[in-house]
Design a protein that fits this description.
Helix content: 25-40%
Oligomer: single chain
CATH class: Alpha Beta
Number of helices: 4
CATH topology: Ribosomal Protein S5, domain 2
Strand order of the largest sheet: 1-2-3-5-4
CATH architecture: 2-Layer Sandwich
Distance between the termini: 52 Å
Number of strands: 9
Strand content: 25-35%
Structural class: alpha+beta
Number of domains: 1
């Protein structure tokens, strides 16, 4: 283990500076903004509204549908190709799976709630920022939710478990693992757990414990943004 000092000087469990806002897109039913470090995500929610084509409808409940996109020059690495690609489709599906457990659309049969997330600027942790912004937007839209989802990327750099990797750490010249995690606030239920790289079971459990404290910090910021928005209404 030689990675004892992080490239940006943070403590091992320290998150990058964060910012969150709610209700920032006037023509959306709900919207959210989440920034962590240099990664910025805007989310807009539309619905519930009738789902077309009709063969996709569920007569017992509504469905959530997520759409994720990075702008062409948003990345820290190579230029992002505009339009949908396999990575955007995969993250859209991941967002769906992460958010769906807390959403109750049983009162809206045959309906859909669309969540659009765009990232104009990125520096790692994009899917986690997208999920956190989407959760703010869903709450702002008044979508029935059993809990709030907060998300953060944990990881391991050269044998050291750290919170909230940035791009420099993801591309560090050593063994690196990236572990996006999403959790509910009340029960700490894990709704997203992915891993790119290798990590021992012991270190994975350590990362999960660290994630509980990290997602709590994200949650507090999300709630602050929602309270500030509704205090103005």
């Amino acid at each position: 283990m030689v990675y004892t000092k992080r490239v940006d000087g943070r403590a091992l469990d320290e998150l990058r500076p964060m910012e969150a806002k709610a209700g920032i897109i006037p023509n959306a039913d709900g919207s959210g903004y989440f920034k962590i470090g240099n990664t910025v995500a805007y989310a807009a929610v539309y619905g519930p509204r009738e789902l077309f084509p009709r063969f996709l409808q569920n007569p017992k409940t509504g469905i959530i549908r997520c759409h994720y996109g990075m702008m062409p020059f948003s990345g820290s690495g190579e230029r992002i190709r505009p339009g949908q690609n396999r990575r955007a489709q995969e993250i859209s599906m991941v967002m769906n799976k992460a958010l769906d457990p807390v959403i109750d659309l049983s009162a809206f049969p045959n309906a859909v709630v669309d969540v659009f997330v765009d990232l104009p600027q990125t520096d790692a942790g994009t899917r986690c920022a997208a999920i956190s912004a989407a959760a703010i937007a869903l709450a702002d839209a008044g979508i029935p939710m059993k809990d709030l989802i907060s998300s953060i990327a944990m990881g391991q750099v050269d044998g050291t478990v750290v919170a909230d990797l940035n791009y420099s750490e993801e591309s560090y010249p050593a063994i690196v693992s990236d572990i996006p995690i999403a959790m509910t606030h009340n029960t700490k239920e894990v709704t997203l757990l992915q891993m790119d790289g290798e990590i021992s079971k012991a270190d994975l459990l350590k990362a999960l414990e660290m994630a509980k404290k990290a997602t709590e910090k994200v949650y507090q910021l999300q709630m602050k943004a929602l309270k500030e928005k509704f205090a103005k209404d």
